[in-house]
Design a protein that fits this description.
The structure holds 2 protein chains of 2 kinds. Chain A is an alpha/beta fold. Chain A is about 40% helix and about 25% strand. Chain A folds into 2 domains: about 140 residues, Rossmann fold, CATH 3.40.50; about 60 residues, no CATH class. The two termini of chain A are about 35 Å apart. Chain B is mainly alpha-helical. Chain B has one domain. The chains are: A alpha/beta, B mainly alpha.
Chain lengths: ~250, ~240
């Protein structure tokens, strides 16, 4: 479980996060939604320690993270898997080397055991046989899948995904969404997904957190979103005619 | 200015820490030796041969007076290559080749979130990316320095022989005349210091790149410009300290 307590973060004089309180539960896909510039990426990066908030605390299974020393932070980070918006695969390494990277650094497995684990993870994301390809030789959707394989190779307790569907066609996006959900349930991972793709939200979200103007504006489940009278949330979720019609039908 | 120096020192503090796993670190050093050292062999060789050749010709033209012994052409080619050309000038060229390469490589990793990916995995990205480059340059630059001295003197010898500006005997006599072994030590000390400057400054500008492809280009340019300025500054300081 990840607990975010009163997090505030500013850049220069611009306060991007304002006293955000959120709890993310294990075995569930928590989706953070919000307009561009609402602060959701800053929230994600603050949780994983890429930004240091001025105020507040973050607990990974009751272990305080923000004020921990660098060694302890790195220990916690070994339990984190992250899928970046652009994949962030190491371009000079093959698919296999990318997935094996964390194993080489942090595990004491033999070469054969590492190979077995890498093959398992690649198979899990339906990328078997692509071991020797370089990131530049595979499509964006495949890169995302390899990125997920890399994120789960050390059996993480926490999985973070920053807009995992951006730039993908709808079919591939659904495949990635389902993969994230399956992995979350299978390994009881605390998964946090940043997105503004409402299709993803409706597809896989267990808990939804709406961030607006640097604050947690609303939270609830998939069904709750249709019955909320929160104006800002409705403006965001039902911006398209399609979703307006869906809301009317659901009423 | 102070902020930049402070950030540089903090980065270096992160660079000089214990690597996560020795075997991987050693492999990274070997990869960097290939990229930084071996891949620079051809440019260092070409530049050194032509520098030595032109230097010999220019000295020969200016030493036409009959009372100036011809062997001084060989001597001046040797000392100029050792004292200045094979260390400082070669490093200015390497600042362009190696420095821009390092800054653009690390800068691209930064803007494509590869460095963030390393950090999230629990890897000290500064140590993992920068220290192998610094060690590789520290090991290979002195070798390139010695190679440059040899090839520069050889270039001069070829010109002396074929252009008939000085006899082979005079040139070889000049090479052996009044040789000061400390000059080689001085040259090696200089190039070791320059290797640290070029790799660390270039890594610094690459590491703190933010934005997009345009900013990577700007970081690369800054890396080369500041590396060159610092190499020239430290050349003056080291010469003052070691030779006077």
């Amino acid at each position: 479980m990840i607990e975010v307590k009163n997090i505030s973060k500013s850049f220069n004089k611009n306060k991007v996060l304002k006293n955000v309180n959120v709890d993310f539960e294990p075995g569930k896909v928590s989706m953070v939604i919000g307009k561009s510039g609402s602060g959701k990426t800053v929230l994600l990066k603050s949780i994983i320690g890429l930004h240091k908030p001025e105020e507040g605390k973050i607990f990974f299974d009751s272990r305080e993270f923000i004020n921990a020393n660098i060694k302890f932070k790195r220990q916690i980070r070994e339990e984190i898997g992250m899928v970046f918006q652009g994949g962030a695969l190491f371009t000079s390494l093959t698919v296999e080397d990318n997935v094996r990277f964390a194993l080489d650094l942090f595990s004491n497995k033999t070469k054969a055991e590492k190979k077995k684990r890498v093959d398992f993870c690649l198979e899990r994301v339906d990328m078997q046989g692509s071991n020797d390809l370089f990131p530049a030789e595979i499509s964006g959707g495949m890169q995302k899948r390899v990125s997920i394989a890399r994120a789960i190779v050390l059996n993480p307790k926490y999985l973070f995904c920053d807009e995992p569907n951006s730039g993908l066609d709808p079919q591939t996006a659904i495949i990635i969404d389902k993969l994230i959900r399956e992995i979350t349930l299978e390994y009881n991972i605390t998964t946090i997904v940043n997105t503004h793709d409402m299709n993803s939200v409706m597809e896989i979200a267990d808990n939804i957190y709406f961030i607006n103007d640097g604050q947690k504006w609303w939270n609830g489940g998939r069904d709750d979103i249709f019955h909320s009278d929160n104006i800002e949330l409705n403006d965001f979720v039902f911006a398209s005619e399609l979703y307006k019609k869906i809301k009317d039908v659901s009423k | 200015m102070f902020t930049v120096v402070g950030k540089y020192l903090v980065l270096m503090g992160n660079v000089f820490t214990k690597p996560v796993r020795g075997s991987i670190f050693f492999k990274r050093i070997l990869d960097e030796i290939e990229q930084i050292g071996v891949d620079s062999l051809w440019i260092v060789s070409i530049v050194s041969i032509f520098m030595g050749a032109v230097l010999t010709l220019q000295v020969a033209i200016n030493f036409e007076a009959p009372y100036i012994p011809k062997y001084l052409i060989g001597l001046s080619a040797r000392d100029t290559m050792i004292l200045e050309f094979s260390s400082t000038i070669i490093c200015l060229i390497l600042a362009g080749k190696v420095g821009s390469n390092i800054a653009s490589e690390i800068g691209t990793m930064r803007i494509t979130e590869q460095i963030d990916a390393l950090e999230i995995m629990g890897v000290n990205s500064a140590n993992y990316l920068i220290l192998p480059k610094m060690i590789a340059a520290f090991v290979t630059f002195p070798i390139l320095n010695i190679l440059s001295i040899i090839l520069g003197i050889f270039g001069g010898f070829v010109v002396a022989t074929f252009a008939d500006t000085v006899t082979v005997y005079d040139y070889l006599y000049g090479l052996n005349y009044a040789f000061v072994p400390f000059y080689v030590t001085y040259s090696l000390i200089k190039i070791c210091v320059f290797s640290v400057i070029i790799t660390s400054v270039s890594s610094f500008y690459g590491y703190y790149t933010s934005g997009g492809a345009l900013e990577v280009g700007k970081s690369s340019t800054k890396a080369v410009v500041y590396s060159i300025i610092l190499v020239l500054l430290f050349n003056l300081i080291l010469t003052q300290v070691l030779l006077t």
